[in-house]
Amino acid sequence: MVWNFAEGMITAIQGFFAPQTVVAMAQRQNTIDQIETQFYLEANRQEFQAELEGYRIASQFNLQERQQTFQASLEGLKIDAQFAMQTRGQEFQADLEGVRQKFNRELEDYRQFCENARLQKRQDFEAEQLARRLQHEQRLEEYRRETQLTLSRVQLLTAIELADDQAIRDTFPLKTPAIVILDAYKIYQENYRNIPLLVIISPPALEYEKFPNASQGFSKIEDSLTDQVQEFCKYYPLTSQERPVRYQGADWESKSSHGKIAVDILHHVLKSIPTVVLESKVDGDLLRIYLAGWDMLEKVPHYEKVLTVPWKEVLYPIARKYAQEWREYRMKLLEKGRSLEDLKRRGGDDELNLLILEEEEEDREFGRSGQHDYKYNVREDKYIRELAQFLGICHCILVGLMADRYHFSHADVHPKLPELLPGLLEKVPSESLNQMLVGEIVSSYQNLYQLAGCDRPHLIPDLYLDLALSLSHLPDQSWARKQIEYSIKVWLMLRNRVSSIEEQKPGLLELLEAVTSALTVGDKEYLEKLNGCLAAIGESQHQEMIRVAMQRQEAEYKRQQEAKRQRQLEVKRQRQLEAERQRQLEAERQEQLEAERQEQLEAERQRQREAERQRQREIERKRKLENASVACTLGHSGSVNSVAISPDGQILVSGSDDKTITIWDLSTGQELRTLTGHSEHSDEVKSLAISPDGQTLVSGGDDGTIMIWRVV
Fold it and tell me: What secondary structure does DSSP assign to 528-548, as a single string?
């Protein structure tokens, strides 16, 4: 205002003082220009100092970063050198230990060779004695069989001559004439190595007998039983040269021809033919299976009851299973809104059995189970089919047992039934019946093996292992474990090692330790089978002990036979290994050099690609500068002294000589806010700066003040 007043006064008196006024104005303008020039120089100097300080700081950071990189590289090289020295030291110690162990091993080998030479002579003598004994026993068995077969042929020819007798034809209980069977076996004796076993079954025939439980729904099951046994006999085909079986089926002339009388008549005519007759009866609540038959030249046939099973133990578990399945399905039907009458109609006997099952479960819950018979309804055909299936399983097992016994006794053929047991036993309806059948099977085979052990003991250990392997599929592993123990005891007995351990009643571990002490190289096959059985019953922890013992025996045997040659081969092998190791080391070194070269090439390619990218960016930047255009024009009422852009590139701040600071949206050019606040002595805003986080603004005025603004 003072200045405006002065201008007015000058204008008023201009006419009086024109020359003096011109001079004063020129001086004033020069003074103003000098001040502005000084301010401009000072601003340029400050900007230069700021840029110089920025370059200095950047240089310091770059130098510090390079120094850190160098220190890290130096530390890495030092660590690598330490590891290399440690590795070389370990390799030297390992080589030194290898040489020492090799010397000790060679010394121990020589000592062991001398000891084994002495033991080997004793073992060779024992093995020779055992082989001679087995050979003698085998010759005696072959002579016995040849004699038996010759006598059987004479007896068969006599039976053929008598088969046309009218009395024999009238009393013979089979539909197939006796002469047909006898002529067939004459051909078998001429062409077969092993004479087939004749198998005949006699299913239960309720229509000819009066039983109290006939009203329970038992009907004729002959067809089903005959088919099952016929299907099983495919494993013993008539055309086989090892285990031939002739299956005659239920070939009875009359269903009333059963029992001991029928067996005696058959034996009178077919005494020269090995025969097995299986007869099953339903006696009240019991199923009874009788086994009859004879071997060649047997004068009296045997007829005995071998199995008695309450039929309720067979059918009631099945009835419970069907009732439980119906209960689950019944709940689904109830959820769909089916009526009780509809459920009773659809459930049939399963509905009634469900009521009985729930009654049984309630009694069991209150501790009253087993006090009475719950009388499940088992009259439907599906229960008869289940009964027929169980009878079929029993018949198949008995046929397999008798066929195995016959062919083993006459031809040393290993039993086939142990291979088939898992498939048969899994169809048994209850665990108690399963255990009963397994007990009968094991007892039968043990009796057979004990009888055979007198004249063919060398076969028994393997046979026990075969039986153990078949029993290993059962939940109760004790059956298989016992057979393994029996096998080992017989094996040790053959080597005169069993007497010292029988008194102590050893367990499996003690038996296996005894086995390892009596091993020879020829026992490898037996040990492999033994290991398979141990793995099958979950005793695989013992396999390593046997494997190590066998390997030790094999190694000892080889050293005993070819000690000198083995040492030469060992030296040659060590040289080859050393040469191979050196070759591998050289190959690894070459691979490492190649990898380093590839890394250097890759680093060089990276630098070239980075330089190319920098060049392209510079070209692009220059192109953009050449093609630059004005996007937006912003302004103040006075001149703009300074500008600043936020780090995120979204905000532009400008300071002007009109004493204002304006905040703009950089992308749209829209004015966001105007700040005023420097003192009235300040004519203009000289400089601006924004903090790195974009939240703080600093301004400087020409009055020497600095103001800090919070940008929100």
Answer: HHHHHHHHHTT-GGGHHHHHH
Mean per-residue pLDDT, 178-200? 83
Q: Give the DSSP letter string of 656-695.
A: ETTSEEEEEETTT--EEEEEE-S-TT---EEEEEE-TTS-
Pair of tokens at residue 376: 């499940």
Confirm if 282 and 386 have CB atoms less than 8 A apart. no
- 247 neighbors 199 (Cβ within 8 angstroms): yes
H/E run at residue 279 = strand 275-283
**Mean pLDDT to the nearest integer, 357-380:** 73
Q: What is the pLDDT of residues 587-616, one digit of tens each?
A: 888 888 888 888 888 888 888 988 888 888
Name the pTM for this structure. Answer: 0.55
Amino acid at 237: P
Most confident range, picked from 212-226, 423-437, 673-687: 423-437
Angle at 43 between CA 41 and CA 48, to 5 degrees: 95
Q: Tokens 């701040």 belong to which residue? A: 653
Residues 6+ apart with CB under 8 A from 318: 378, 383, 386, 429
Q: Alpha-carbon distance 194 to 245, whole Å?
A: 10
What is the second-level CATH architecture of the domain 640-710? Beta Barrel (2.40)
What backbone torsions phi and psi does residue 242 show, to the nearest 5 degrees? Answer: -105, -50
Q: How many CA atoms lie within 13 A of 667 on its CB side?
A: 3
Residue type, 20: Q
Q: List the domain boundaries for the chain.
A: 1-62+101-159, 318-366, 434-601, 640-710
Taking the mean position of all CA atoms in its chain, how far away is CA 468? 25
Express each pLDDT in 457-514 by its tens digit: 777 888 888 888 888 877 778 888 888 888 888 888 877 765 544 445 667 777 877 7
pLDDT, average across residues 97-114: 78
* H/E run at residue 109: helix 18-162
DSSP annotation of 650 reads -
